[in-house]
Design a protein that fits this description.
The chain has 256 residues and is of the alpha+beta class. Helix content is 33%, strand content 14%. Helix 1 packs antiparallel against helix 6. About 3% of the residues have low confidence.
Length: 256
């Protein structure tokens, strides 16, 4: 969708929403591809629907089967529900899924290539089989205290062989949760190597980045896919917020 495209381009490529939409417009309007003439290589860029045409699904599935094998082909996309979704346009996807990023690289600018690759990989991955994880959690009883550990191992890589969503700092889970644990059995005696006493204080919520602000606007039903980028441009141009790294920090004027 427009919202997830803007969020991923911000997190992965460090593109502003304005830049993402400008590049997407160029890819949609058409680029000169050697051997194909001028063609629009992505579908319409303003949409909040995750619907994908049957034709595109079939093309993606045949590519996946040929490149990765039958076991990597998925069941197709699940349509996103919700009250406000307007289903006029299908999800943003490559208009010709068989046109890989490498095939068009020489015809695109560096930034156009990066954005097309993001759209292409995410679309193909959306048609692939789920990744399967083995997760294990352990309770360690020591001196009347209970310690907990959890970890996971990859059983089948599925779509992650091609694409993994970038995590933003806002609302991410603690990275320590995904550690691989050694083989453990009930009743094993464990040896204490070190004990760190850490005190945690309540932290204020992380400041919004462009990506997390768009996500919040979508969740609260503020605006439409076509207004996310202009909204951020406006609050920046009027000096209500200023950029501090990736974060948007309110100015004194903004707070007033």
């Amino acid at each position: 969708t427009t919202s997830t495209l803007q969020q991923e381009a911000s997190k992965t490529l460090n593109f502003s929403t304005q830049k993402t939409m400008r590049l997407a417009q160029q890819l949609y309007e058409g680029v000169d591809i050697k051997g194909n003439g001028t063609v629009g290589i992505i579908t319409y860029l303003r949409t909040d629907s995750t619907r994908v045409s049957e034709e595109a699904e079939n093309m993606a599935r045949s590519y996946i089967t040929e490149k990765y094998g039958e076991q990597y082909a998925g069941e197709g996309t699940v349509k996103k529900g919700g009250q406000k979704i307007q289903d006029a346009h299908e999800a943003i996807r490559p208009s010709m899924p068989e046109l890989t990023p490498e095939q068009v690289k020489s015809s695109l600018t560096t930034d156009q290539y990066k954005l097309y690759r993001l759209i292409w990989e995410r679309f193909i991955a959306s048609q692939m089989a789920d990744a399967l994880m083995d997760t294990v959690s352990v309770d360690i009883d020591a001196d009347n205290c209970l310690f907990k550990a959890s970890g996971s191992t990859m059983k089948f890589d599925g779509f992650t062989v091609l694409y993994e969503e970038t995590r933003d700092n806002k609302g991410d889970k603690d990275k320590s949760e995904n550690k691989n644990l050694p083989e453990l059995h009930e009743g094993d005696a464990l040896k204490l190597r070190a004990l760190d006493g850490n005190q945690h204080f309540t932290q204020p919520p992380t400041r919004y980045s462009e990506a997390s602000l768009i996500k919040a606007m979508e969740e609260y039903g503020i605006g439409r896919p076509s207004t996310y980028a202009p909204t951020i441009t406006t609050i920046t141009a009027r000096n209500y917020v200023e950029r501090e790294g990736k974060q948007l920090k309110p100015t004194v004027l903004g707070e007033v």
